[in-house]
Amino acid sequence: MKRLPLIAALALAGITSAAHAADLMGAWQAALARDPEIAAARALHEQATFRQEQAKALWAPMVSAGGAVGIGGSDSRTKGAEAMGQSDVTFKTNVNAGALTRASIGAQKAWISPEREAQSKQLELSAQIAQTQWQQAQQTLIMRTAQRYFDVVGAEQTLTVLQRQQKAMQQAAAEISKRQSVGDASVMDVQEANARVSEIRAHVLTFENNLATKKVAYRQLTGQEPTQLLPIATINLTPANLADAHTWVQRAKQQSPSVQMMGLQQAIQSQEAKRVKAGNAMTVDWVAQAQMDRLSGQGMYGSASNQMAQYMVGIQLNAPLSSGGMVESREREALKQVEKLRYDQEAVEQQVEQQVRDAWQSLSTAQARLQALTQSEQASKARLSATRQAHRTGARTTNELLGAEHDAAQAELALLQLRIQTAMDQLRLAAASGELGEAQLRQVNALLK
C-alpha cells in the first residue's frame, strides 16, 4: 500500500510527459538512436580507425618463425681440402635417410618502398573519406528528420483548413437548401452548393490518407507517435544576417562533404597511379635471418651427422629490371582515371553551387513573399466576410460565396506551405554548404511554437 503513491506519481509523470508537444530536436535525437542508415554509417566511420592502424603497420617489422621435422638425406663431397698437415684431402659424407630438423627465424622491415608509401597514403585518405561520409550521413539524417517532421505538420495543418472549409460549405449548402424551400434560392444554387460540398469532401478524404502515410514515415524514422508536433510560429523566419550568395558558394566548395569526397577519391586514385608505377621501383629492406638444419642417419660410409647454421643482419635490395610494359600500361590507365575524377569533381561543384544558389535565392526573398501572402490571406478573409454578408441579402450568388470560401482556404494553405519551405530552406542552405549540424537544427527548432 505504501508503494501506491509512488506508482501513481510515476504514472502521472508519464502521462504529463506524453502530453508535452514534440519538437524537431526530440525527433532528431530519436532518429539518431534508432535509424538503421545512420547506424550503418557509424559502423563505417569506426572502420576508419583500423585503416589508420593498417597504414602504420605497413612500416612495422615483419617477424616470422618456422620449423620442420621429417625424413631427409644429403650427399656432401669436398675435394682439395687441407687437414692435419695434409693437402689435397677429400671429405665425403652421406646420409641416405635420416631424421631431419630445421628451425628458422627472420625479421624484415621496409626502409625504402614507394609502393608501401602509396598504400599507406591510400589508407589514410580512405580514413578521411570515412570521416566525411559520417558527416554527410549526419546531415542527411537531419534533413530526413526535418522533412518528415514538417510533412506531418504540414499535412495536419492542411487537413485542419480543409475540414474547416468543408464545415463552412456544408453550412452554406444547408442554408441555401432552406432558402430554396421558401423560394429565395434557385435549384441551380442548391446543385452548385452540393457539388462544392462533394468536391471538398473528396479533398478531405485524400488528405486524411496523406496524413496517415506521413505519420507512418515519421514513426518508422523516430519510433515515436507523431502526436502534438509543434508548428512554426508566426515570427520572422529568415536569418538576421544572411551572407551574399557568392560567400555561400565559396563555403560550399571548401566544406561540402560531396566536394570533399570527390577530392579525396581523386587523391586516392593518384596514389594508386604511384603504387602501380612503384612496381618497377627499387626497394630496400632491413633484414635479420637465422636458420639451422640438423640431419643424422646412416649412409654408405656408416653413421653420419650433419649440422649447418646460417645467419645474417643487414639490408636487402630488390630492383626489378623489366615488366614487359605491363606496369607502364597500368600506370597510364590509372592516370586516366585521375583525369576522369577531376572532371567528376567539377561537375559535383557545379551541382553544389546550383543547390546553394537555389536555397539562398529562396531564402533571401522569403520574407517579402511571406508578407505578400499574409496580406493576401487577410484580403481573402475580408473578401469572404463581405461575400457572406452580401450573399445573405442576395447581392452575391452562391457560386461567388463558395468561390470566396475556396480562395480564403487556398491563401491560408499557401502561407502555411511557404513558412515550412522557408524553415527547410535554412537547413538546405546549411547542408549544401557543409555547415549543417545540431546548432543549425536548434536554430530552426527555435522557430517552432
Verbal overview:
- By secondary structure, the protein is an alpha+beta fold.
- It has a single domain, classed as Outer membrane efflux proteins (OEP) (Up-down Bundle), CATH 1.20.1600.10.
- The chain is about 65% helix and about 20% strand.
- It has eleven helices and four strands; from the N terminus they run αααββααααββαααα.
- It has helices at about 5-20, 25-35, 35-55, 115-180, 185-220, 245-255, 255-275, 325-365, 365-395, 400-430, 440-445, and strands at about 60-85, 85-110, 285-300, 300-320.
- Strands 1-2-3-4 form a four-stranded antiparallel sheet, with no helix packed on it.
- The longest helix is centred in the first third of the chain and has 68 residues, at about 115-180.
- The protein is rod-shaped.
- Residues about 1-20 have low confidence and may be disordered.
- Keywords: Cell outer membrane, Membrane, Signal, Transmembrane, Transmembrane beta strand, Transport.
- This is Transporter.
Describe this structure in a few short sentences:
The chain is an alpha+beta fold. The chain is built from eleven helices and four strands, in the order H-H-H-E-E-H-H-H-H-E-E-H-H-H-H. It has a four-stranded antiparallel sheet with strand order 1-2-3-4, with no helix packed on it.
Percentage of residues in strands: 15-25%
As residue ranges, the low-confidence spans are: 1-20
Secondary-structure element string: HHHEEHHHHEEHHHH
What is the fold named in CATH at topology level? Outer membrane efflux proteins (OEP)
Q: Quickly give the CATH architecture.
A: Up-down Bundle
Number of E-type strands? 4
Strand order of the largest sheet: 1-2-3-4
Rg computed from alpha carbons, rounded to a whole number of angstroms: 40 Å
With helices defined by DSSP (H or I, 4 residues minimum), what is the helix count?
11
**Text of the CATH class:** Mainly Alpha
| Full CATH superfamily name | Outer membrane efflux proteins (OEP)
Terminus-to-terminus distance: 42 Å
InterPro entries: OMP_efflux, TolC-like
Keywords: Cell outer membrane, Membrane, Signal, Transmembrane, Transmembrane beta strand, Transport
Family: Belongs to the outer membrane factor (OMF) (TC 1.B.17) family.
GO molecular function: efflux transmembrane transporter activity; porin activity
